[in-house]
Amino acid sequence: MATTDHLKVEKIDMHSFLSTLVDSSSVIRSVTRKILRLAKLPQFKLFKLCIDGLLGNLETYPQDEVDVFSALFHIGRNHGKFTVHIIEEASPELEPTCGGKLGFDSTRVAAFLVLAISAPLSHEKDVGAIPPRIFSYAVTWLGRISYALSDIMNQEMLLAYLSKCSRSSAISLADFKIKETLLTVEGDAPINLCSTVDSPVGMPFWKNSGGTFDYHHKNQMGIGKSAVHAEYELGEHSELRKDVNLIFKKVKDFWTLVPLGCTNEALKGIRACKEEVASFNKESLGCAGAVAFALQYLRVILKLAAVWEYRRLTKMFHPYRVENLELRFAKLDRRLREIRNRFIGLSKGEELQILELLLVALLLRLSKMEICCYDTTIKLLSSTVAHAEFLHKEGSTEPSNFIVEVKKSLHDVGSSSSGSTYKPLLFEKLLDSFSLQQFVLCGIPGYIHAELKVPGNDSENPLPFIPGLPASIPLAITLHNVSTESRCWLRISMSEESTQFVFLDSNLICSGNRSSNEVREFTFVAPFYLTPKAISFTSSVSLGIECFSENVDQVKVSGGPKCELTYLCPEKQIFLCKSTECSAFI
């Protein structure tokens, strides 16, 4: 309706319209935010209603953070004077605590900061000034804000903009554009939600002089020199990022030993880096995600180096070596699946570097026909290259030489059914073109994990069960950063032959108590149907989420998940004993 000039929302209907921001359908919420981005609201009361609605959306559905931040930025640009007014009202929330620290754990604070930094770019005239210190506070959220505005500007541009605004109490759009020649903003004609729509609106976007976003420096994915310099000034989060990025630099240096055949020396150095990261403080607010990501990245590199070592073996493997290599590949696949699916808030550049590691793992498989399921691996290679190409277009970055070479080679390989011959030399050549780039962590990623507890259960206090009948297993579940739209499963097993899956309905997750926007707690009684005819037994339970992006061919488990699971917690052992009260019944 908005794009065909037929949208008209009366003031009396505004509350009903904004109620769609907390609708259970993510599609409905998304469409509402798209309309609000184009809105021109004539009264401050209506503007404040919209902002409150978006904040409520963010509180109820934290997984919408990226889109909510983007909507707030565009709404702020369209209503500069109202934005300044509302920031003045919210200023007590934006100031540091008595200890001098900003509320890093408050997404609400970040939302107001996103709104505030949009004001200087307003199309309105005589917009009041936002206090320069607000832009300094926004720098502390640089990673998450830049991720939300990645379709508008890259991180280096955002940092330059915030730095300039933090030094000047009065800056206009024209002033910034003329003096810095950094951003070009196309005009728009906002839709008035409380009157007849005049025309469709073209969304504004900022470009560099070449007409592209250039999300990362052409020689290195990540932040530029100015961002590296700023890390020393961003407080505890940036200090941690700086330490982690120094570790990543060491890892890159150690990797250069792997192609030379000095794998043991490289592994020793990377393990030392892993021990150093493990000693970092994980308890500070927001730091757990960065530490968890760094550890997972190091685990991936360790497994990759261990598999790479087998490239030097040119003869056919002895069966025990084949089994050993298959085991190493299984561990590498699991680590890659975890780093791709257990972290949120990564930039497109960070995702691309992870995809490069996945491509290397696939090529290593293809180079060893003894352990390769050729057709499936080729399909996954093709889909991964396509995903990387999509991210390049989204971030307007130039692909690495390695990805370019892999893409070129795709037409030279095919399925075994098409009659294509196996070409190990081609895969070896592609692996030779790979060079590990230094990973640069731009922000603090969110860490998706879970905790499982079986209250009061141990070897001395087993749960009762009746042989042959379902047993009830009471679980206390805590989910961290898990979207309510994720498909979560419990895996309960005694052995590989006695394994069952139990689906956790999203309504159950939504009903859980939230200690924060990212943490949900609830209890659930899981049935276990495969009880043996025995006096006692032990089983294990773990919790995972389906990874839809991982599967070329869906996994078919009767009564279980259709896709591979990424497990979010260690297995929890459960002790059960035959109920004496039911002996007469049996």
Protein model, in words:
InterPro entries: INTS4_C (IPR057412). It is found in: Nucleus. Residues 453-577 form the Integrator complex subunit 4/Protein SIEL C-terminal Ig-like domain. The protein is of the alpha+beta class and 586 residues long. The protein has three domains: 2-180; 232-432; 448-582, Sandwich (Immunoglobulin-like). The protein is globular. The strands form three sheets. Strands 4, 6, 7, 10, 11 and 12 form a six-stranded mixed β-sheet that branches. Strands 3-5-9-8 form a four-stranded antiparallel β-sheet. It is built from 20 helices and twelve strands. It starts with 13 loop residues before the first helix and ends in an 8-residue tail after the last strand.
Largest sheet: 6 strands, mixed
How many beta-strand segments? 12
Shape: globular
Whole-number total of structural domains: 3
DSSP summary: helix tally: 20
Helix residue percentage: 40-55%
Alpha-carbon distance between the termini?
66 Å
**Strand-residue proportion:** 5-15%
Our Rg estimate from Cα atoms comes to 27 Å
Mean pLDDT over the residues: 77
Query: Structural class, from helix and strand content?
Result: alpha+beta
Residue runs with pLDDT of under 50 for 5 or more positions: 172-191, 195-235, 415-419
